[in-house]
Amino acid sequence: MHDVWERRSESQVMGYYTRYSLRQIGNPIAPESLAELIIGDQIASYALMPDGDTRDWEKWYEHEAILCAWSRRYPKTLFCLHAEGEDPTGIWDKYFLADRIVHAETFEGLPSIDPNLIVP
User: Fold this and answer.
1) What are phi and psi of 96, to 5 degrees?
2) Is 78 exposed, middle or buried (CB count within 10 Å of its CB: 0-12, 13-18, 19+)?
3) How many domains does the chain have?
4) Which domain holds residue 33?
């Protein structure tokens, strides 16, 4: 039992690295405001450039809580967080609008979701 616990603990510490990018769909906020949001969150600023482009591989487990908070602050802006994990099949998009989340897996060659289907 002790060995199993040690392996779980080690895997939790090591984590899973992902490359993130953030875009806005409809009613985008000013670039300065987006940069302020990203720079204002330590992990977001490790994962994203101030314009939302990918900065580096990161473990950003709190992304849902952070993006929900941003979407509450700017409820008319649809934020799309795109992620590509270490595993080639770990590609997904999450859409955030007015504190709501829509998660869509992305399959090769197919768009993940029609953003027009997400309404406040």
Assistant:
1) -125, 125
2) buried
3) 1
4) 18-108
